[in-house]
Design goal:
The complex is a heterodimer of chains A (about 170) and B (about 180).
Chain A lengths: L2 H4 L5 H19 L6 H15 L1 H6 L1 H5 L6 H19 L10 H7 L3 H22 L5 H8 L3 H22 L5
Helix pairs in contact in A: 9-10
Chain B lengths: L2 H6 L1 H21 L5 H8 L5 H22 L12 H18 L3 H9 L3 H27 L11 H5 L3 H22 L2
Helix pairs in contact in B: 2-6, 4-9, 6-7
The chains are: A mainly alpha (about 170), B mainly alpha (about 180).
Chain lengths: ~170, ~180
C-alpha cells in the first residue's frame, strides 16, 4: 500500500495533478497561491536587517514585503523537508556537488559549478522579483488563475531559458 | 474554527505553510523536477517532464480554483504586469533558470534531495532578490511600469466569460498533453 512512497519517481501527470490539488488547498485554507520567490526577498531583507536595521526600514521594497518568516517562507522550508523525505524513502538521497550533465561537459570540479550556480541564482532572484514571480508563482499559480502577466512571464522564462541553455550546451536542433 | 479565522490565524498559517511545503517538495522530488538534468533537458527540448508537470498542475488547479471561486469559497490573486516588468524580468529569470538549472522552488527541493549546488543557488537567489530590492525605487520609476498590459486576466482581455476561457484553456492543454504522448515526447 505504501509502495508508491518508496518509488523513485511518479508520472509527471500524477505529480502535476497533485500540485493542482495542492493549489486548491492553499487557496481554500490559506488564501495564498503557491509561490516561492517572495520568500527569498524576505530572507534578503532579514539578512540586511541584521547588518543595518535602519536601512531596511526605509527601503520601499521591504515595506511591501516585510522581512519576516511568514506562510511562504515556511512553504519553502517545507519543500526542502518534503523533497528530503521523498528522496530518503526512495533511497535516492545522496549528497552531490556537481550534477552529472554539468560534469560531462565542464568537469567534476565543485568550485566551477558552485560559482556558476551562484551567478545563475543571482540572475534568477533578480529576474523573479523583477517579473513579480517565479516558475511556481507565475508559471503555475498565476497561469491557473488566467493572469495575462503570468502567461507572458511563463513564456519569457522558457524563451530566456531555452536561449541561454542552448548557448551553454549547444542547440540540439542545429 | 471558521475558514476566515483559520486564514487570519498567524500561527496556524505558519504550520499550514510548512505542511503544504512538505507536500509540494515531496511531489516535486517524485516528479524528478528537482534534478538539474531534467530542468536542463526541458530547456534543451530533449525532456518534457517540466512542461508536463506544469501543464497538468495548471489544468487541475485552474478548474478547481475556478469552481471554488464561483461558489464564493476562494478569492483570486492576480496582479497586473507590463513589458518593462514581466517581459524583461521574465527573460532575466530565464537566463538564471538555464545557468542555475533549478528554479526557486525546485532549488529548495534539490537541496533537500542532497544537491549542494542548489544550496549555493538558493543563496544566489536571495542575493539577486536583495539586489532587486535595493534598486526597486529606481526601477519602479523607470522601467517597471513601461508598456502596461491592457488587462489583468485573459477573460477581461478577450472579453469572454471566465468559465468559457477555463474550458477552452483546459481543452487546449489536454490536446497538447495528448499530442506529447502520441508523438512520444
Amino acid at each position: 500500500m505504501f509502495e508508491c512512497f518508496t518509488m523513485a519517481s511518479w508520472s509527471p501527470y500524477i505529480v502535476g495533478a497533485g500540485i493542482g490539488v495542492l493549489s486548491w488547498l492553499t487557496f481554500l485554507l490559506s488564501d495564498h497561491p503557491l509561490g516561492c520567490s517572495t520568500a527569498y526577498a524576505r530572507t534578503a531583507g532579514m539578512v540586511e536587517s541584521v547588518l543595518s536595521q535602519k536601512n531596511v526600514g526605509k527601503m520601499p521594497y521591504y515595506r511591501k514585503f516585510a522581512p519576516k518568516v511568514e506562510w511562504q517562507w515556511m512553504l519553502v522550508l517545507g519543500v526542502v523537508i518534503g523533497a528530503f523525505i521523498s528522496a530518503y524513502l526512495s533511497g535516492t538521497f545522496s549528497l552531490q556537488a556537481v550534477p552529472p550533465l554539468f560534469a560531462d561537459t565542464f568537469g567534476t570540479g565543485a568550485a566551477l559549478r558552485f560559482a556558476v550556480a551562484l551567478v545563475g541564482g543571482v540572475l534568477m532572484g533578480l529576474g523573479a522579483r523583477w517579473a513579480g514571480g517565479c516558475t511556481s508563482g507565475h508559471g503555475i499559480s498565476g497561469t491557473l488563475q488566467l493572469s495575462v502577466a503570468s502567461w507572458i512571464a511563463a513564456v519569457c522564462f522558457f524563451a530566456g531559458g531555452i536561449l541561454v541553455a542552448g548557448m551553454i550546451y549547444g542547440f540540439p536542433i542545429l | 474554527m471558521t475558514l476566515k479565522q483559520l486564514r487570519s490565524n498567524t500561527h496556524a498559517q505558519l504550520v499550514l505553510g510548512l505542511v503544504f511545503g512538505v507536500a509540494f517538495g515531496f511531489l516535486l522530488q517524485k516528479g524528478g523536477v528537482t534534478e538539474y538534468g531534467v530542468i536542463l533537458g526541458q530547456l534543451l527540448l530533449t525532456d518534457f517532464t517540466v512542461v508536463k508537470v506544469m501543464l497538468a498542475a495548471i489544468v487541475v488547479g485552474m478548474i478547481g480554483v475556478f469552481l471554488m471561486n464561483r461558489a464564493g469559497m476562494v478569492s483570486l490573486h492576480t496582479r497586473s504586469g507590463s513589458v518593462g516588468a514581466t517581459v524583461i524580468g521574465g527573460l532575466i529569470f530565464g537566463a538564471g533558470f538555464a545557468v542555475l538549472g533549478y528554479c526557486p522552488g525546485t532549488a529548495a527541493g534539490a537541496f533537500g534531495s542532497g544537491a549542494l549546488d542548489a544550496a549555493i543557488g538558493m543563496i544566489g537567489i536571495a542575493i539577486g532578490a536583495g539586489i532587486f530590492a535595493r534598486f526597486y525605487p529606481a526601477l519602479d520609476r523607470t522601467v517597471l511600469k513601461r508598456g502596461e498590459f491592457p488587462a489583468e486576466t485573459i477573460p477581461e482581455l478577450v472579453g469572454m466569460k471566465r468559465g468559457i476561457v477555463v474550458a477552452v484553456v483546459a481543452v487546449l492543454i489536454l490536446c497538447l498533453l495528448y499530442s506529447f504522448e502520441v508523438l512520444g515526447i
